[in-house]
Specification:
Largest sheet of chain B: none
Radius of gyration of chain B: 20 Å
Strand content of chain A: under 5%
Largest sheet of chain A: none
Number of helices of chain B: 11
Helix content of chain A: 55-70%
Structural class of chain A: mainly alpha
Distance between the termini of chain A: 24 Å
Strand content of chain B: under 5%
Number of strands of chain B: 0
Number of helices of chain A: 8
Helix content of chain B: over 70%
Order of helices and strands of chain B: HHHHHHHHHHH
Oligomer: heterodimer
């Protein structure tokens, strides 16, 4: 269930990236004022949009987690926010480069979108420390969900507040895709799709990896006869949820078979 | 979401079967909030754990600003910024202490055992923090006027009070949520501050922009309506969000 469709998705992502890059470098016209530098727009803006959508999606998944108490929603929320944070770093770096190139400063406070993105990023950077410093895994996922909901709702509020606070010093030429020339617009949309696909693929990869790792851990634990949890982790635990083991696919049956007295496979590594 | 899960709604049927002589009416929300608020204020009055420290912190911060900026008096943007930064940082001290007694000395457990609506805890804590902030500002704002502010404080007064009140409301709501979120973590003081600061940014924007013309040397009022609306809207929306999710922090 976790690894299904991963290969197709990966190929689709790679293909869309080649298409997007081709369009960016060979199809889209050079912008009159900024020239070649403006190409970073095709990376920066989609990264930002996808990261923000990921943050909000993480909040929605957290709502689902609190409603259903299904650990898998917590895992999805965690992965969505984790990946959005990584995309967020990309957004801040590309934004900084763009600002340096076009306005001569690495950071401009007069660009409300960039500033509000930084605030949102700073808030979400606490997500993993918060998870990590709560010992109990049930409470960890519950608190993380509350955080994800609050922060998800904070994203649009914050953008509104920061935008209000900024007088428009710089003309917002490339703020939205609505006032772009058609060629640029098409390129932008393809780039957006490629980045969104990349996000989804990476999320799916991470989810699969986490799921596999938790299964391997459960097996190792069953083999070595250790009942205790291995250390503390900020990652949601799927195998720990009591009463949910039956729904976890292949983990439980093989674990119960294996627990019949095989010697330990060695230290359960982290 | 909260009334369905609250113990209060289950109580009447159970209570009427169990007890004959005791009138087991579930306490009303306002009654519970009032009782909790009374408890909080009583504890604060007896221990003096939060408000005096917040006030002292603010005073020391003003002194530090005086030396750091090397200015004897400030006005306008600078004054509004110093005032709001100091107020918010001092508020974080209060936020960090807000739930500590409940977590360490069984206050949460006792509250969860009581057959009352859990939202009562949220309202009571918001009102507690609001009360702390108001008392604290009674000391800190005049001290700011005395120590650092160039123009007279009384010129800015009626409008500044409204701005401070709206800001306090937002700080109280966010502080309650963040305090409850951080109190069960290992690094509670650290996480509380780190969580609260980004969420305070819209309050700083609204509060500082609204109060800077009031604190300017050539005082001109009347242009702060937009920022007051921003503050009010943020308070309202965040209040609703916090109210909706707060119950989940109390389960155990």
């Amino acid at each position: 269930m976790y690894g299904k469709g991963l290969r197709t998705l990966s190929f689709a992502t790679v293909a869309s990236f080649f298409l997007a890059l081709g369009l960016v470098f060979f199809y889209a016209p050079l912008e009159a004022e900024q020239g070649f530098l403006q190409k970073i727009f095709y990376l920066h803006v989609p990264l930002a949009i996808v990261a923000l959508c990921g943050f909000v999606a993480g909040g929605i998944m957290a709502i689902m987690h609190l409603r259903t108490r299904d650990q898998r929603w917590d895992m999805r929320s965690y992965v969505a926010i984790h990946m959005s944070l990584i995309f967020g770093v990309g957004t801040l770096i590309t934004g900084s480069i763009w600002a340096k190139g076009s306005w001569g400063h690495w950071w401009v406070w007069s660009e409300p979108t960039l500033v509000s993105f930084l605030i949102v990023f700073l808030l979400y950077a606490i997500y993993q420390p918060l998870r990590f410093s709560i010992e109990d895994s049930e409470r960890q996922s519950r608190y993380a969900s509350v955080f994800a909901i609050v922060a998800g709702a904070f994203v649009p509020l914050n953008f509104l507040a920061v935008r209000l606070s900024t007088e428009y010093l710089h003309p917002r030429v490339l703020g939205s895709s609505s006032n772009l020339p058609p060629k640029m617009r098409l390129t932008f949309l393809v780039c957006l799709a490629a980045i969104a696909l990349l996000y989804i693929t990476l999320c799916k990869f991470e989810m699969t990896a986490k799921h596999t790792r938790s299964q391997v851990r459960a097996l190792r634990r069953a083999l070595s006869g250790e009942a205790s949890r291995l250390g503390r982790s900020a990652v949601p635990t799927l195998d720990q949820a009591p009463g949910r083991a039956a729904g976890m696919g292949t983990g439980t049956p093989s674990a119960s078979v294996a627990s019949s007295g095989a010697p330990a496979m060695g230290r359960p590594g982290v | 979401m909260s009334p369905a899960r609250s113990l209060a709604s289950e109580r009447p049927s159970e209570g009427s079967a169990l007890a004959h002589d005791m009138p087991l009416r579930p306490p009303s929300l306002t009654g519970t909030v009032a009782a909790l608020l009374r408890k909080e204020l009583l504890v604060e009055l007896r221990t003096l754990g939060s408000v005096p420290s917040m006030s002292l912190f603010a005073m020391s911060t003003f002194v530090i600003f005086h030396f750091a900026l090397n200015r004897n008096s400030v006005d306008g943007d600078l004054a509004a910024g110093i005032l709001w930064v100091t107020l918010l940082f001092a508020a974080i001290l209060g936020v960090n202490r807000l739930f500590v007694a409940d977590a360490d000395q069984g206050g949460f457990d006792a509250f969860l055992l009581a057959p009352v609506d859990r939202s009562a805890m949220f309202f009571a804590k918001v009102l507690t923090l609001l009360a702390y902030l108001l008392v604290f500002e009674l000391i800190a704002v005049p001290a700011f006027g005395l120590l650092l502010l160039g123009p007279s404080l009384s010129a800015a007064m009626p409008e500044l009070l409204l701005i401070l009140l709206l800001g306090d409301l937002g700080v109280a709501v966010i502080g309650t949520l963040v305090g409850a979120l951080a109190v069960h973590t290992r690094a509670r003081d650290l996480l509380g501050a780190l969580l609260a600061l980004p969420l305070f940014v819209p309050i700083v924007i609204g509060g500082a922009r609204a109060s800077s013309p009031l604190l300017a040397l050539n005082h001109h009022a009347g242009s702060s309506g937009r920022w007051l609306a921003t503050l009010g809207l943020y308070d309202l929306v965040f209040g609703l969000i916090a109210y909706a999710v707060f119950d989940f922090l109390l389960e155990d």
